[in-house]
Write a structure and sequence with these properties.
The chain is α/β, with parallel strands linked by helices. It has 13 helices and 20 strands. The strands form five sheets. It has a nine-stranded mixed sheet with strand order 12-11-8-13-16-17-18-19-20, sandwiched between helices. A five-stranded parallel sheet has the order 2-1-3-4-5, sandwiched between helices. The protein has a two-stranded antiparallel sheet with strand order 6-7. Strand 1, helix 1 and strand 2 form a beta-alpha-beta unit. Helix 1 crosses helix 8, helix 4 crosses helix 7 and helix 8 packs across helix 9. Bound molecules: cytidine-5'-monophosphate. Cytidine-5'-monophosphate binds next to helix 11 and strand 16.
Amino acid sequence: MPTAGTPAPRVVLGVSGGIGAYKAVEVCRRLVEAGVHVAPVLTPDALRFVGKTTFSALGSEPAQSSLFEEASPIPHTKLGQSADLVVVAPATADFLARYAAGMGGELLTATLLATRAPVLVCPAMHTEMWEHPSVQENLDTLRRRGVSVVGPEEGALAAGDVGVGRLADPATIVSVALVMLGGRGDLQGRRVAISAGGTREPIDPVRHLSNRSSGKQGHALATAALRRGAEVVLVTTVGRPVAAQPRLSVVRVDTAAEMEAAMAVESDKADVIVMAAAVADFRPRQVATHKLAKDDGVPEIVLEPTPDILCGLVARRRPGQVIVGFAAETGDAVERGRRKFDRKGVDLMVVNDVSAPGAGFDHDTNVVTILTSGGTREVPLSSKEVVADAVLEQVVGLLAGRDGRAGAPRAEED
Ligand code: C5P
């Protein structure tokens, strides 16, 4: 973001006067790094915690903090009208009260009155203040008006206190902000179903067969698709909670059979299917109803093949649907991946040499080769987010080709 030829989306980053203001510096930096034009607006009390110079240096334009002393005589209307999104981090109890009441006595609240852009507030305050009914009622009012809220989280607060009230992690705030901006992206109006993680095939009530997949690549694909504006369904075996994001629904599954059922439901509605999950190839033919005990001797576990979910999805493909498979390989990975591409009938095969340093299971980075019917694209060692974007770029090209629009797949011809 932004894609070539489109102007950078504009975010007004509002900072109100709480100790979490120092973390807004990181939010500013990360948004700019993601290609966003950031206009920082600090309330007078925010200036007690952080300096305007910091935000002017890291933002895309000089930080502003006054309705009357800035270069423009009407800074709030200009800021509000040109914003694609307003993010307020941290949002203090006092700020939330003034915003909910529709007050416009300082630049940030006046800008919020003057904007029609979506708004994301990130509350941060001490637990007692957070739990106060007036704060919760103000937030309810704002939510009813369509304002999105991220956080607060539980953790260390100012003055050695611990509890709920800590500003959400800057990475989370930026991720949600980018998803909110994604409504303008090249997957807008598309439905993308993504599977992620290793399946778990039960042996008995306490044991299972699984693999080392972390689900990170599939989850990175979900975030990247959201940022491009898609409606995303993430069918995942990953237990840790996925941060709520606009346009995302999550289906938790464990076994290959559960994943097959969930993906079958989604495939009837999806424009794009990405099978990034590491589906077990075999499962115990029988699942013991009681825990297998050592005293009963070494068990013999008879395995049977799991259904090939990807092949099933290809067989029931909707017209125009783009289907992406992953192939974790070692050795002559691309050759083996090409054979798998032909056998499975997919549109894209993302070949992952899991023996390459920094690639594959549990790493934050990956090395892949993307195969299409006409070409290959190498993605050298990169973050899983960058790999996800490279895959989706190919998907967007294929969708455009099927719609008869410009933008054929951009893999180089073999
Ligand atoms: O054949 P292989 O397991 O290498 O194929 C990998 C691709 O097939 C991945 O996209 C994976 O999600 C999918 N797969 C599947 N069902 C299986 C095994 C793999 O959908 N039982």
